[in-house]
Amino acid sequence: MMWPKPRIHTLRLFNLRTNRSVYFKRFNSSKDKYSSIEEFNKNKTKYSYGYNFDSLKELDDKTQPKAERPKPSSNDETIDINEAIENDPRLTKLKPGSHEYRETLYQLHQEFISKQKSQQKRHEFNERMRGVFYGVAALVGVISVHQIFMNYESIKNRLLMNYTYRDMKDEVVDVPKKNVKSTKHLLEKLEKELSNEHIAQLQDSKEVPGVYQFGDNTKIPLRIPAFNGMFLKDVFMERGHIIAITEKGRVVEWKKGQSKVAERNWLGLLRSQTFNKIDAKNVVQFSSGLDHLLLLTGNGQIFVVNSSKEPRNVGQFGPQYSPFDKKEIPVNKPIDMTLLNNEVVKDGNQKRIVSRKFTDIASGDYFNIVSDAKDGVWTWGDNTFGQCGDSNTTKFEPVPRKVFDKDDYKRICRNVFGRTAKEADFEVARVLASQETSYIILRYMDQSAILSLGNGLNGQLGGGRYLHVCSYPEIMKSLIGLKEYDEDLNSVKNINIKDATVGNGHMFITLNNGGSKDVFALGSNQFGQFGNGKRVKACKPTRLPRLLEPQDGNDKLSLAKSINDMNTQRLQLLDDHKIGKHNIEQVIVAGDDCSMIYYKLK
User: Fold this and answer.
1) Same domain, 336 and 445
2) Residues 298, 419: one domain?
3) 417 in any annotated domain
4) pLDDT of res. 311
5) Are residues 398 and 295 in the same domain?
6) Cβ–Cβ contacts within 10 Å for residue 473, how many?
């Protein structure tokens, strides 16, 4: 009788360490046939892992020797995954090989995979945050190094100041700081400027014509008694010196310290002086620089005159005497600006030359700015600070060039007058020039705007910034949009600009409002040329205090309060005011580091 071969029953499990299946074999040494399940179970001997391996650890040692296993890093903790799963409380309570055992083993395996993924995500997030931190730290470091490099001298001086100057320290004295806004401090300032003699010389500004002078280290407008009762047509002034033309055509001169004006004839201010005659006809306007004169004739033509034997030529004399040619320039002889005064126009298929008409002129130290009849603006000469409107800011611009026209005004003023503004509504009212700065006064319908270019280091551009070079026009926006109530029209109307005057570093702007005209000042105030009792420069138009009157009395405290109040007691120039039988107006003029107000017949 032959015995049947024993049957081998296998159980497939998954080895978590080696990531492969392991078959557990079950042997039976008894006969093939059994009468019942109970009898079969009684005859089972044992379960083995694989081929006679008693544990997963023994199986791993056989299939993957320790020398070939990947070594864990020093920072990682060595974990026996199989041992951890085998010792899990949920698995030890179950019978190996049973359905529950296999299902629980699978669940433990899935939990382990999920935990590994979670740990991996946490590790990646931490690495990203570490990278961001290192990036921010590197950026802060770069910025810090750049700032230290750029401010090295300043930082070094601050750090070494106590070491370098330790022997020069004086004893610390507690000196109370003055409140510059206090009435007492204003009174102290006023006593230095306004003596009892000055108070005695005050006249009623609405009754007695004359001249108020300020600047030249006088910070309050004071009367010059020598001009009391005079009406003037025009004036020229510099520090300590005034030359004026009276209403009757007399030329008078005044110097600081004189009690009377000196009258001179038209041939010369002093008999000992000699004068040269300029052969120019029909001149209606002239402007002067340091070494040249700019002339405008009645037919709208431009001429330049060299007024110095050794002029500094940077292009202000035009292309005929270009600084690149080094030609000798004749003195006191008008130079016809031929290329500027004429233009070529097309007439059908032919071209012809016609005269170009100009309406206003102005000269800086070494440059010129003019406006033509079509509201175009032309410049030539020195352009170091961009005063000629050329973005290249080259020093020499000998060829006159049109820098602005009506299309440019619309583009420049689009943010103040709106994008719907029309080119045809823009007009050039005036052009002005100081030492190194140009000004263009525009009219747009019933409003006005001032464009400025060039040197604005003292705030003379009026745009709210202190710029050393400005070749693109700054707009004095604080003067745009001003309104007042007109009692005659019973409505609110815009306030435009009546006039403006420039000195060597400051500017006055007179508004066209009501019977008394408001005045604004901007630019340099180093010598008190604003007349507001201070020496502070302004980069925006600022109001000025009113003139002192005899009715203010001798109380200097009240005078100090009056000067400091520029809202309710601001400067307003008389306009169309009657003194005796005359209709008069007050005119403010900016000179070289000084200013003045005089009376003029209308």
Assistant:
1) no
2) no
3) yes
4) 94
5) yes
6) 24
Q: How far apart are alpha carbons 418 and 135 in whole angstroms?
A: 46
3-state secondary structure of 83: helix
First to last CA, the chain: 154
Domain span including residue 323: 276-404
Residues 359 and 429 in one domain: no
Length of the chain: 602
What is the 8-class DSSP label of residue 424? G
- Residue type present at position 427: E
State the total domains in the chain.
Answer: 3
Helix axes 183-193, 556-564, angle to 10 degrees: 100
DSSP conformational letter for 418: -
Alpha-carbon torsion, ordered 591, 596, 599, 602, to 10 deg: 40
Name residue 66's amino acid. K
Instruction: Output the 3-class SS for 25-60.
Output: EECCCCCCCCCCHHHHHHCCCCECEECCECCHHHHH
Query: Which pTM does this prediction carry?
Result: 0.69
CB 577 within 8 Å of CB 585? yes
The span from the CA of 469 to the CA of 383, in Å, is 10
Strand pairing report for 292-297 and 594-601: unpaired
Reported as a single tens digit per residue, the pLDDT across 14-35 is 444 444 444 444 444 444 566 7
The span from the CA of 225 to the CA of 231, in Å, is 13
Rounded average pLDDT over 499-509: 96
pLDDT tens profile 282-338: 999 999 999 999 999 999 999 999 999 999 999 999 999 999 888 899 999 999 999
**C-alpha–C-alpha distance, residues 33 and 7, integer Å:** 11
DSSP helix/strand/coil, 102: helix
Q: Does residue 539 share a domain with residue 391?
A: no
Residues 451 and 584 in one domain: yes
pLDDT at res. 46? 55
The residue among 39, 20, 18 whose CA lies nearest residue 30 is 39
Percent of the chain predicted with pLDDT > 90:
53
- Alpha carbon distance 549, 555 (integer Å): 12
Return the SS3 of 435.
Answer: coil
CB-hemisphere CA count at 13 Å for 64? 12
| C-alpha–C-alpha distance, residues 195 and 90, integer Å | 107
| Same domain for 545 and 443 | yes
What angle, rounded to 10 degrees, do the helices at 152-164 and 99-150 form? 70
State whether residue 148 is helix, strand or coil: helix
CA dihedral 70, 72, 78, 80 (to 10 degrees): -20
Please list, in sequence order, all residues whose beta carbon lies within 8 angstroms of the beta carbon of residue 120, skipping any fewer than 6 positions away.
none
What burial class does residue 400 get, using C-beta atoms within 10 Å of its C-beta: 0-12 exposed, 13-18 middle, 19+ buried?
buried
Token output for 411: 């583009």
With residue 190 as reference, give the H or E element that holds it. helix 183-193
Is residue 471 classed as helix, strand or coil in its secondary structure? coil
Q: Which of 83, 115, 147 is the last residue of a domain?
A: 115
3-state secondary structure of 141: helix
Q: Are 342 and 357 in contact (CB under 8 A)?
A: no
Which of 375, 404, 433 is the endpoint of a domain?
404
In a domain, 499, yes or no: yes
Whether 194 is in a domain gets the answer: no
CA distance 473 to 475: 6
Beta bridge partners of 419: none
Question: 537 and 395, same structural domain?
Answer: no
User: 26 in a domain, yes or no?
Assistant: yes
Among residues 520, 532, 504, 522, which one has the least CA distance to residue 588?
520
Q: How many CA atoms lie within 13 A of 56 on its CB side?
A: 19
